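User: Here's a chain of 377 residues. Predict its fold as tokens.
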Amino acid sequence: MNSSNHPWTKRLCPLLAVGSIFAAVGCKQQTVQEETRELPVMTVTHTDSVTINESYSATIEGRQDVEIYPQISGKITRICVREGQEVNAGQLLFVIDQVPYQAAVRMATANVHAAESQVATARLERDSKKALFEGKVISEYELQTAQNALATAEATLEQAKASLVDAGNNLSYTEVRSPVKGVVGTLPYRVGTLVSPQMAQPLTSVSDNAEMWVYFSVSEKELQGMMRRHGSRDKVLASFPPVSLTLSDGSEYPHSGYVETLSGVVNPRTGAVQVKTVFQNPDRQLLSGSVGNVVMPHSERNVIVIPKNATYEVQDKVYAYRVKDNTAESVEIKVAAFNDGNEYIVLSGLENGDVIVTEGVGSLRDGQALKTREDKR
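Assistant: Prediction complete.
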């Protein structure tokens, strides 16, 4: 049977035709609606002065983080500080069992006295032989033998004195003192623990945190831009303004800092260059090993500033949509390497009076018709 003559087919054909008409009309309406989207725009103008604060993740270190190791072996008999205590240079931290080292000092002292007696005896013998030699009673050989015995005794005395100094040093090493002023770190060992210079973990550490070093990194590309702009590393360093520090809890550190050095080596894994800033720490609020964000202000005059949302990127190039005759026109722009995550400083590509789309640029296409409204921000 011919399906075209089936009664159901005859009834469905008009319905399908009507549906096709509605679908075509719907697609056309959707296309028209898509081509005439209404988006916010802004008119580009030069700004007299603008400051953009750029934030960099940073690590905080004390000026000196000194690990304290014992210089002799023995059991800890006394711990003289607490974790987190502020200490002065030379302050006593630990005492290691002194008894064997005190005994070594006494023995070395006795050896010195014995050697001194031997020298005195050898000197008397030499003087006696010298008198006899001058009286032609003994030969020169006997006199020389006495002089050699005196020299041997004097050498033995020097060895004994050196041993006494060594024993005294070892005894002094039983008192472990802080080499710097700072704050005591953790105390992993307790009284009675056997320690030695070969131990893997130090007795403690002392962080000299009156002045803190805060490290962050800038990209090689950003550094090259600074070098081109200022001409040399010294001029780049001189161009850095005072910086501020945001702590890990979001609060702002009350003292400002300054950029002291730029690393001369690019990290091959990250492609970044390390920057060292210095912050004074009079209240010991900053702790070595903590993290934060260095905030660097960039002040510019007579520049164009646009929202970052008004741009999109393709292969490391930045674009915006300029509106001409109610049509979107894609334009490549050059922006400053630094930004605060919200705004860009435009170096080229836009002029005073240009109108750009500020939202929805990710779904636009070049040549698309637009309805526009003024961005009220």
